[in-house]
Amino acid sequence: MNSKADLLKELRIERRPEPPPSRRGLWITLAVIVVALLAGAVWALLGGERGVEVRTAPAIAVGGAGGSGAASVLDASGYVVARRMATVSAKITGRVREVLIEEGMAVAEGQVMATLDPIDADAQNDLARAQLAATRSQVDGVRAQLVEAEANARRLSQLVQGQLVSRAQYEQAVAQRDTLRAQLATAQRSARVADEQLRISGIGVDNTIVRAPFAGVVIAKAAQPGEIVSPLSAGGGFTRTGIGTIVDMDSLEIEVDVGEAYIGRVQAKMPVEATLNAYPDWKIPAEVIAIIPTADRGKATVKVRVALKEKDPRIVPDMGVTVSFLERAPGDAGEVPRGVRVPAAAIASRDGGEVAFVVAGEAGGEVAELRTVGTTAAPGGQRTVVSGIAPGETVVLDPPASLGDGDRIRIVAE
């Protein structure tokens, strides 16, 4: 019995300290947490939280186009061009003797720009002058003979009446008189022809002098003394076709290419505000001259001519310019309209009323804010919003029917 009790006393459970947790298991747990966070971020970016894709446009204040008091219905870009610009050349082929112009020089109408070598023209003129002198001498000689023949015919006429001379002698004298009269008429016609030849040769001499056809400014000097110039291209590119190019600065205007889709907004006599790229703070009043009645098939544009109402030496040909076609002329009488101008596509219908969605929130978290608006018609496919939208706000174009107030949006184009 004692031995069994002793054995039972020896039975016991030894409690040893637990081992420390494994580092491998800790890293696995952290990796699982990071993957879960990344998956949630990717889902937020690529999933339904991206928002509805929309296009937007700015709301422009009516009456605030450049501070002119008129609303801009269309903006376009173009270039300054000259309606009167000419590359001046000689009417004849010749060697340049002297060039009297330089780039930037102002010339008056008829001012001499250059002269050609006049040797050939002067020789032709001298020959014509000598021919005219010879024909005039011939006229004088025939006229003197005619005077004598007429006197002889009158004398024989009296003698033949008294039967002192034969009628044959009288008739011979009359025939000689008439022959000299015909010779005088022929000589006089030859003298007139010689005079015309002299005048034509004088034109040839004058053609050696190149004059400005109108007042303007020289923008290019093309020839130098000693070169051959010709009104026609010849000599394989070694013959100049012009002396210089001049521009009438009073004929400057603007040419603008307007897209076919927007040409309906432009009308003749429409007020325009022009801004030169070189002087962005200078607003130049202008006016539409005409819409050229043809389209460019390749660019799908229509050319519009715009007249500048201000002349200034800073305006030069081929300058880039931005124009704003205005709804009305600055300073026109009548009440100044209030509100903002937005594309008609920004106005939608909800529950029988007109609404618009305005972009709210910061970049990357934009939401659509529903606004009830009051509108009036405007030219060029636009609407004037008189209430509900402030100038400078951005509106959503063609809002889908499923878009609601506070829905998240993503701007894809403006």
From TrEMBL:
GO terms for molecular function: efflux transmembrane transporter activity. It comes from the Bacteria. Pfam families: Beta-barrel_RND_2. InterPro entries: Beta-barrel_RND_2, RND_pump_MFP. The keyword Cytoplasm does not apply. Residues 132-197 form a coiled coil. Residues 254-325 form the CusB-like beta-barrel domain. GO terms for cellular component: efflux pump complex. The chain crosses the membrane at residues 25-46. The keyword Lipid biosynthesis does not apply. Belongs to the membrane fusion protein (MFP) (TC 8.A.1) family. This is Efflux RND transporter periplasmic adaptor subunit. It comes from Luteimonas granuli. The lineage of its organism: Bacteria, Pseudomonadati, Pseudomonadota, Gammaproteobacteria, Lysobacterales.
